[in-house]
Amino acid sequence: MSFTISPLLSSPLTPHHPLKPSCFLLKPYHYHHLPISYKPNKPKSLIIVPRAAAGAAGAVNDEWLSKLPEKKKPLYSHSLPCIEAWLKSLGFYQSGHDRAVWFVERSDWHAQLSLDVTDLHIRYLKTGPGNLEKDVDRRFSYALSREDIENAILGGP
After folding, report:
1. Over the stretch 1-44, which tens digit does the pLDDT of each residue have?
2. How far, CA to CA in Å, does 58 sit from each of 55, 65, 135, 138?
3. Helix (H), strand (E) at residue 25
4. Which one, of 57, 125, 53, lies nearest residue 88 by Cα?
C-alpha cells in the first residue's frame, strides 16, 4: 500500500488568515479521492476484566467498610468511598451513567437512590414489585445518622 501526504488546513481562507498548512495528514493512497475529513471505521475494543480484578474490587470495598464511622454518626461525617461501600453492602449497585445514582431491587420493592448535594433522595419505583400506585419519594438530611437512614430506606415505601 502506498501513502500520500495531504495538507490539513487549520484556519479558514480569509484575507486575515492566509493559507498556511499547519500540519500534514498521512493517509493511505486508496483514500485519495475522498475528502480529508473521511475517517474509516475504527475497530471496536472489547475490555475483559479478569476475575482476579473483580475480587480486588471486593477487597477495596471491604477496606472502606472497615473504615466506616460508628453507625450513630451523621452521614456527613462519612467519606464518599465509605458511603459507596455501605450502599454496596446494602445491595445497591451504581448507575453506569451517573455515579451519584444507585439502584436496589428487593423482593417486594425496587428503588433508585441519589446522593444529592444537600440530601440523600430515594425513590421507590412503582414499576417494581408491590402495589405502589405511583413512585414514592423521600429525602433524608446528611445530618441524620447512618443507622437512621439505613432503617428508613430498608423499611421500604
Report:
1. 544 444 444 444 444 444 444 444 444 444 444 445 544 555 54
2. 5, 10, 32, 30
3. strand 21-28
4. 57
